[in-house]
Specification:
- This is B30.2/SPRY domain-containing protein.
- It comes from Salarias fasciatus (Jewelled blenny).
- It contains 32 helices and 32 strands.
- It is of the alpha/beta class and 913 residues long.
- Helix 2 packs antiparallel against helix 5 and helix 23 packs antiparallel against helix 24.
- It is globular, with a radius of gyration of 34 Å.
Length: 913
């Protein structure tokens, strides 16, 4: 079929008729779900579910395992990102001056890139979109690869693939708006050389296909044409950045789109709802359903399982899902191609041989990192091409048999994950049958295992597989490992009875593997490696580590001080796998400490907003956070670091992350972080960089100096700078704010001794104070007489272990429960001063302040703005106030100053101002 339609030009009108204009619709209105020829075709408009396409940053290489990329995308898929309709792929975004000529769309295998281009072409052909376009020419690199040795002109290449254009006598495209689609750059075997390829501007001049393409992509050949190139992420950098006007990324299905797919696929809503709720119960299945082809596999399997055993157990793990898929395909072959009955055993000696061959091919090509293979590769593994074609649910011949156009035949599995499953099946079977561990090269060479007297121990195979997977820098064996371990479960082996040799694998063997994985989790592994090991434990039906942490989280008894490395990894896994998006991560929920931040860094990276205020963070944390901000996969847009002792050295490290082109941060709070003029200079440099997205910056309660303030405000006024809002709150007192406090002698505990009504010391002998209902009888505390109203400021010299507080008058006086202690309830707010540093306490929640200063004495300033609901504490140095912490609340009753003394000899003195 020819993707052209009647255009408003005499040439087109004269040379084509209505029949020709309908050809693209016929070609693109049907889609074979999953793979070509894998059953009946479906109308594209009937099954098409909108994909999540986003504006995608730089055209860079990403060599991570694509399932890792999908896991990361699954955490962010429903967040506020600019989504693009397929029909709008060439439409410039608001504010963009120049038109879009070339678009590069990235996406992992099976995510729907090809279907996207088909939908674009169909909507164009049906006059729904892009009516200014006269011709759309879709090519795939698979098709173009086989023309490697041939020469064409651009016009000749179009005539070769779209013969109707030749019949219509169209030999020039300068007067038309043309779209070229180049699908599957990652499969390109042509030497695209953008540095040295000859220049070509004539559409009728013949040359090699690679030179044609490089000049078309460069914009030298037919510069008026629009270009849409699709690729998997690992090959995205083959096209120079200056040749691309827009980079987009197909994220696959968002959670609502997954549901829409299954509701379209299953007309019975009850069945659709059951399938959707089942998928949601399994995190690994839910993640993989971001990939449309996996949705197809899942739908095919669950439909068969529900039909064959009403009320039976549905597959919960990836291994179970692929085992069922294999069984479904075997049954289809038995009935459809072999003329058998549905009740016949579905594994024959021939089909077992074929599975052995497919497994061998899958494993050997996985080792070479190949996803696409040619006829000799199949022959080498003993695969008959005609026999292979009946396994279309796993394996597809990419090029159409009926066309004489294609001399070479190219093959691939319908998805990388299926190749990994078959590879794992092959390794498992080989080990069980012969004792040969295909993951051990030395053993393969010597074939010593053929004379092994002992029965092969699966644990040794698993141990080797875990080690090999952990060595892989990009996780290319992650899924393979999950499948290999899952195949050892007797319940899974029974599903493949007739194909798989039953190992009688003992629970003791699997327990050894579980223990080995837990030992690995105790080592210093990257977050991605740890997460995959938890998925492995899930395949082995062991959720003990995760359950242990979840139980502590549910009961509120999680103590991060006592967590082992494996338990920290479990916590990270739980937080990253939670149903709710990581829209806001508050470190204080787990532990307000630098250690906790460094352990939970992957969670910060996956979050939209990170609340890290008052967590005792230092320069070390800034270095770690800088790497998060610089990461291509970071989701962080809002970061609150207020009231941490970061100083200029920490802010400089943070600024280097802010300058990264990958940094997505829009709001940053550094209030009370001891930033001076030097730190401000590095921030100005960061927010002035072209790649900066930072719109809000809070630098309140710092010491930027006149020069720092000047530079920051100049940056805000600069139209080239992204910064829109700069907060710089400073305290300025008038004499009327200074409060002369008077101690309330009726409230003083008997173990507190007063001197000149200004100094209080804790003593062991009880003082002879008369009984009074206002007196604190057990807690070594007292209140002041003055009501604090409006704005008030006072200073205190302290020594020992002192609570400097404000409180409502109604705080309990009898006993020593939390209801009596300053800061232990919702009636009072305290600054705790002692030799380990400064902390604040309210409603029995203790939080570290920004100061790392530790001393057994000091001077503190307290400022309360009652109408504004603000209470601030400061460390008083010789020449400045250093901000410690600010409570922001609503005061509902009159406030009084108060003091507590929690060790013998502790004292405080009110300072004259």
């Amino acid at each position: 079929g020819t993707p052209l339609k009647a255009a408003d030009t005499n040439q087109c009108r004269e040379t084509r008729n209505r029949k020709e204009s309908q050809l693209p619709q016929k070609r693109f209105q049907c889609v074979f779900e999953g793979v070509s020829k894998a059953g009946e075709s479906t109308f594209l408009n009937q099954i098409y579910t909108e994909l999540h396409i986003i504006e995608g940053g730089a055209a860079e290489v990403n060599e991570e395992h694509e399932v890792r990329q999908i896991e990361k995308a699954s955490r962010t898929a429903d967040r506020a990102e600019t989504s693009i309709r397929p029909g709008d792929i060439f439409k410039a975004s608001p504010g963009r001056s120049h038109p879009i000529r070339a678009v590069l769309t990235k996406g992992v295998a099976g995510i729907g890139k090809t279907v996207l281009t088909q939908k674009f072409t169909l909507d164009w052909a049906e006059d729904k979109d892009n009516q200014d376009v006269h011709f759309t020419f879709p090519f795939t690199f698979r098709e173009l690869n086989v023309l490697k040795e041939k020469k064409f002109s651009l016009v000749g290449l179009v005539h070769h693939f779209f013969t109707e254009t030749k019949e219509a006598g169209i030999c020039s495209f300068e007067d038309f708006q043309v779209v070229f689609i180049l699908d599957g750059l990652d499969e390109c075997r042509l030497p695209l050389d953008f540095q040295h390829a000859e220049f070509l501007t004539d559409v009728t001049e013949s040359t090699s296909v690679d030179v044609l393409l490089t000049n078309l992509i460069r914009g030298k050949l037919l510069p008026s044409a629009r270009l849409w190139i699709t690729t998997r992420p690992a090959a995205a950098n083959q096209i120079p950045a200056d040749c691309v006007d827009r980079v987009t990324e197909v994220r696959g299905f968002t959670d609502p789109q997954k549901e829409e797919y299954f509701r379209r696929r299953f007309r019975e809503q009850e069945q659709a709802s059951r399938i959707i709720s089942h998928i949601k119960t399994s995190r690994s299945l839910h993640i993989m359903c971001h990939i449309p082809v996996f949705c197809w596999i899942t739908a095919t399997v669950l439909e068969k399982v529900l039909k064959s055993r009403e009320g039976g157990e549905l597959p919960k793990t990836l291994t179970q899902m692929y085992i069922h898929h294999l069984v479904v395909q075997a049954k289809v072959k038995k009935v459809k191609y072999d003329g058998g009955a549905a009740t016949d055993p579905h594994w024959s000696s021939k089909s077992r041989e074929m599975m052995d061959s497919l497994g061998k091919l899958a494993f050997e090509e996985l080792q070479k990192r190949n996803l696409i293979f040619y006829e000799p590769d199949l022959t080498e593994c003993g695969i008959d091409l005609r026999a292979a074609s009946v396994y279309s649910g796993m394996f597809t011949q990419i090029f159409r048999e009926e066309s004489s156009l294609y001399q070479d035949k190219v093959f691939c599995f319908i998805h990388l994950s299926l190749q990994e499953f078959l590879a794992a099946l092959h390794v498992h079977q080989t080990f069980i049958k012969s004792g040969i561990n295909l993951l051990d090269e030395q053993q393969q060479k010597s074939r010593r295992s053929k004379v092994l007297k002992k029965k092969p121990n699966l644990h040794h195979l698993h141990q080797r597989a875990v080690d090999e997977a952990l060595k892989s820098p990009n996780g290319h064996l992650d899924l393979f490992l999950r499948f290999l371990l899952g195949l050892s479960l007797p319940t899974n082996q029974s599903l493949l009875r007739g194909l798989l040799t039953q190992t009688g694998s003992s629970s003791q063997t699997n327990q050894k593997t579980v223990q080995y994985i837990k030992e690995k989790l105790s080592e210093s592994l990257s977050a991605e490696r740890s997460i995959n090991l938890f998925h492995c434990l899930n395949e082995l039906n062991d959720g003990s580590l995760v359950e242990e942490i979840q139980q502590s989280l549910r009961s509120g008894s999680l103590s991060t001080d006592e967590l082992s490395p494996a338990q920290w990894s479990a916590l990270v896994f739980i937080l990253l796998s939670s149903e709710e998006d990581l829209k806001e991560f508050d470190l204080k929920k787990y532990s307000a400490s630098e250690k906790a931040l460094l352990k939970l860094l992957p969670v910060v990276k996956a979050s939209n907003k990170a609340l890290l205020s008052c967590c005792g963070l230092s320069e070390r944390s800034c270095g770690a956070l800088s790497s998060v901000l610089s990461s291509q996969s970071s989701s962080l847009t809002h970061l609150d670091l207020s009231n941490n002792d970061l100083q200029d050295s920490g802010v400089k490290l943070l600024s280097s992350g802010l300058e990264s082109p990958h940094c997505k941060l829009e709001a940053l709070s550094l209030s009370g972080c001891l930033v001076s003029e030097e730190g401000c200079a590095s921030l100005v440099s960061a927010v002035s960089s072209k790649s900066s997205h930072l719109r809000e910056l809070d630098l309140s309660y710092n010491h930027p100096g006149d020069s720092g303030v000047e530079k920051l405000f100049a940056a805000v006024e600069d139209p080239q700078c992204s910064l829109e809002t700069l907060r710089m709150t400073f305290l300025s007192f008038s004499p009327s704010d200074f409060s002369q406090l008077e101690l309330d002698t009726k409230s003083v505990n008997r173990n507190l001794k007063l001197s000149n009504n200004r100094k209080v010391t804790r003593v062991s002998e009880e003082q002879p104070y008369p009984d009074h209902p206002d007196r604190f009888d057990d807690c070594p505390q007292l209140l002041c007489r003055n009501i604090l109203s409006g704005r008030c400021y006072w200073e205190v010299e302290w020594s020992g272990d002192v609570y400097i507080s404000v409180s409502y008058r109604g705080i309990r006086r009898k006993g020593d429960s939390k209801e009596c202690v300053f800061g232990g309830n919702d009636q009072s707010w305290s600054l705790i001063c002692y030799d380990k540093g400064y902390y604040v306490r309210h409603n029995d929640r203790i939080t570290p302040t920004s100061s790392s200063s530790s001393s057994s004495s000091g001077r503190v300033g307290v400022y309360v703005d009652c109408p504004a609901g603000s209470l601030s504490f400061f460390r008083v140095s010789s020449d400045s106030l250093i901000h410690l912490y600010t409570f922001n609340t609503t005061f509902t009753q009159p406030l009084y100053a108060g003091f507590g003394f929690w060790s013998s000899g502790s004292s405080m003195s009110l300072c004259p101002l």
